[in-house]
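User: Fold both of these, please.

Assistant: Here is the first one.
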Amino acid sequence: MKVMLIGPPWGDVYGNFKHVAKVGVFYPPLGLCYLASYLRKGGHDVRVIDAEAEGLKLDGVIREIEQFQADLVGIQVVSPLWDVVLEICKAVKARRNIPVVLGGPHITIVGGEAFEQNPYFDYGVIGEGEATMLELADRLAGGGPINTVSGIVYREGQVVRQTPARMAPDNLDEYLFPDRSGLPVEQYLFSVPRKGIRKFSTITSTRGCPFNCTFCTEPMMFGRKTRFRSPENVVDEIEEAYRRYDISHFIFVDDTLTVEKTRMYEICDEILRRGLEITWEGWTHANTVNEELLAAMKRAGLCRLSFGIESGNRDVLESLKKGADLDRIVAAYKAAKKVGLETRGSVILGLPGDTKATVEETIRFVKELKELDHCYFNIAMPYPGTEIRAAALKGEMGTRLLSLEYSQLKRSGQSVVMEVNDLTTDDLLRLQRKAYLSFWLTPRRIVYNLFRAGIKAGFINGWAFFRSFVLPRRRKRKMTFLSEITNVADYCES
């Protein structure tokens, strides 16, 4: 069977911030690469399409499906891309009318609700999809019974049915390595401190997260129990990508990279033992690091580490059930900077309980955190299945849910779905812009970012920042001016 796996185009989700997103989160579709490994091993002909990397809009995606003569289409979907994915599904049904499978966090969380509202797809893979997708493709190719495939939602006439959940393996070494062979690997580039622009890949060494953050959907996809790959298995994959594709930088997308310190020491020792000249980065929880561990990771090639800050107000931070406090966050950044790491952080504005005063407090906190090199300011989004969404649906903690549309959940774009207390939509957008400009346009950070990865990277990143934050403002002023002229002309004519 010919199977087309699609990562839909996502740039427009970020609105004006898409230029920054293209240099900051332009990641290959790792989940689809895992599926491709299983399907190819099972004898299926597989093509992976990263529509964003290949510059494909809807027509381009459909053209690729037709040229490949796909028998089955699988699409990865997250909530903000729901409308984009539905358009692809509609076009597939109109042009080829072949089975369409959806997978990923959104379909896992929403499940049968999505099927009841939309007739444009046929199957949903719930949770980890490697074995499920292979078994489903085998049944569709051979005509076997679908209702015996564990871990799917499907239609039976007008009825939506869901089969029992598939048990995920505790030992992640059982998984095949993701197959990157079908990706445009030369296009995935990242600015690396003191190394310039390097070809990179994402990698994961764990699945699941033990923390209970009220805003996060990841545990619904992979569970709250953390499962591990062995250090040797992780470094085997790194070495394969390093030797085969000349990839020298790796971004770990584990929810909490340092959740188990002993294992992280072993990964570092294995990288050094093999003499791999690589750099790497990831994100983790402030509670799970210390200076000794960070120094060991730095020796093995770690160059950058990110922590979730979320809020600079102690009460709001505590309400998130993250288990962190501001003192520990500050200590984590101090330790990371002391051993020579570049540091990143992320903040959420407009959380339940937030006010103008607490958001201003958050902005001041991160601006004055001198050990923090990069920070990203997101507007709180009540993703399906999260405690934040449950609170917003009930109007708790001052929240006002403005839309139920999943496609509006664009935390880094020009979108607000939830107001809270005295924070209106305009307030949140204004404070997000203020946060970015006040943080990034400090003299120290301007100089640092111009030279940290070389002049070329500094120019590329600076131009992306300018296009995301300065040009839209100028266009808005120009449009306001033109509108005023038009209004005057209309008045004169009348």
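And the second sequence with its predicted structure:
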Amino acid sequence: MQKNHLPYESGVIPVRGIELAYHAFGRRTDPAFLLIMGLGTQMVAWDDAFCLQLMRRGYYVIRFDNRDVGLSGRPAHADVPDLAALEQSLTTGHLERPPYTLDDMAADGIGLLQGVGIQRAHVAGVSMGGMIAQVMASDFPQHVRSLTSIMSSTGRPDLPPPTPEALAVLLTPFPTDREGYIESFVRTYRIISGPVYPINETRVRRWAQMHFENGLNPDGITRQLAAILYAGDRTEALRRITAPTLVLHGDADPLFSVACAHATADAIPGARLEIIPGMGHVIPDALWDFVVDQMVAHAC
């Protein structure tokens, strides 16, 4: 890893034919905490200040860009699934195998850990990142010390769908010019954050600017969405998880209703469920202390 003037070290690890970009906060001798971000979202949305809070509690904190997003690599010669077919699959449940799956993305996470010399880590993910973390825990139990699944789901088809406004966020292509992208990014965060906690617009605009500067990849978001939909119902796989599991979820989440949290906690043996009043599909600044406290108390 190369030292820089930022509060983290950065690097790129080749994993299964894909280069994964990551940042690491703290001392490698401390227990590792791997943070996995959601659909089309870059690692910088795990804000520096959030990561530093976790680091100061005694952890070596690793965040990374999933394949097909940000500074990480794109799969070579990968097709782009048809967005209309993906939308139709929400009702039919039928989808052809995409260029890669959540299983592939979970194996990426394990490969990244091994690439930086970590054999076992606490793993936390939000939204799609929560799904990836769940697969890591079910398929690679020897590498996952604990699991924190945040604002995620099991993929069970009978669970309540996203609100129409939130679903439109998933299925509407974003502008690719700088100003249009930033405004779209901010508008998306306003929609998914819920009515109780207003977004920190300065911070969200900074994330948007970093996303734009690191590189946009609309095709990658479509491929990631296809991986989510193709995974289907993972309830039986979740029953195999043996790692201590914490499920965090807001009761104002417009993308994954609180029923998704109950389904996740019910599926994972011994999981502890914490419902956060007023939280939507974003961890607001005002709740960072609480969420870090929950993660640390669970990982101890």
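The two ends are 27 Å apart (CA to CA).
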